[in-house]
What does this fold into?
Amino acid sequence: MKTDIEIAQEAQLLPITEVAKALDMTMDDLELYGKYKAKISDEYLKKIEGNKNGKLILVTAINPTPAGEGKTTTSVGLGQAFGKLGKKAVIALREPSLGPCFGIKGGAAGGGMAQVVPMEDLNLHFTGDFHAITSANNLCAALLDNHIQQGNELGIDTRQVVWKRCLDMNDRVLRNIVVGMGNKMDGFVREDHFVITVASEIMAVLCLADDMEDLKRRLDRMVVAYNYAGEPVTAGQIKATGAMAALLKDAIKPNLIQTLEHTPAIVHGGPFANIAHGCNSVRATKAAMKMADYVVTEAGFGADLGAEKFFDIKCVQAELKPDAVVLVATIRALKYNGGVAKKDLNTENLEALKKGIVNLEKHIENLQKYGVPVVVTLNAFVTDTEAEISFVKNFCHERNCDFALSEVWEKGGEGGIELAKAVMNTLETKESHFAPIYELNMPIREKIATVAKEIYGASDVVFSPAAANQIDRLEKLGFGELPVCMAKNQYSLSDDPTLLGRPTDFTLNIREVYVSAGAGFVVALTGAIMTMPGLPKEPAAYQIDVTDAGVITGLF
It folds into this structure.
């Protein structure tokens, strides 16, 4: 059996200029990055602003398990299936982070016969967007420390510096560091921290900005520290905005590539879903909606994280109204939620399936609370039995969800036709009445509690003394009407990753709350969630290599 990278490397790609023609784009609308990648020009984005919007379809999933769900694979395959049916479709996805590529998760190009390509380029350096974000983040950090060193005119309290440096790699030893050691000219000695680039506020800012003007406005208001009076100090006050914007001038432009079947794919931005808001850029999504009749996008991890933030943060800020949701599950993952060990998932087990399907049930209920029609799809495995598939199908129909089997990993677009038809049927027969789960004028505690109880199923929320004080401070500073971005583990609906299925009667623990004023949300950290991941004992990097002929191997 061929690996994903072998399938991608054997694919016959079209020049990106040919892919663009399907969207009525010319060479002048593109800024080429080689033969198979391009940035979409600002001029083209302005030109299509008056076009009618296509249907917006969100792909999300149940909670991730070691058994695999295939959310990106499904997104890509669904886009390819629309193409097979003669429909004009565009896929809008996130860019992958280098950290997970060399860590445990792998890349984010899809899999099997449903991939975006060039796969190696996408998973490694792509068009340099993440490097630009890293540089802009660390420029801000350097200017901040330089301001303190050069007289500290703003009266910054070095014990209340909240801006962290970043790196697009999993490096746990950089989570907590000391900077400024040495002599007087080497700066003030203070504790500092690193986050992974996809957790940088600049990543969120870039992904939520409408244009360069909006980007600069958001960069300007990012809180980097507090002064001795407890007042926020912004990136604008340390005069970092213009230089950061210069570094992000090209990164703000969406990237155009293709699938294995030459369906256009706009891949841009990549905030983590368990730390940040987990969606591709607003610019990419809005552009796709002006370019096609069907737009397939996705949100990271399970629907409790990615979809919730897509709805309550991205859609609210960007004034988007999704038309349908595709909820991805696998028989294997549902049985895993039912208590079956990974090694035994290939055996039919209806009792475990009945026990574990409560995870799917909760996600269906959650999505329906937003007023958006839901289509459930099973990402098929050869070990799935007819009895297991029939059980899930009937379960979904009983809950007013269309259902389709997806075989896109094996068959590409052809294997997604059943799903594409189910989605079109839902779009034609069920109207979306999208509304967020909470009102922005609710107090911060109530917004957090709403997500915790309505989406996660928590019975109560407990705020640490530090978090409670932080919330009071943020509300006094005027940040109380921002949406909340919940930072939670992805494996469970609760803040305990070991609680599978549908946990009940649990308490959600909020340990820290801070504002991302540029992004426009308040972040609530739960449990032991970390903003700088570490590497596993056997990281994926061990398997990655380059042949003498320059061919990359081992990337997945």
About this structure: The two ends are 14 Å apart (CA to CA). The longest helix spans residues 129-149.
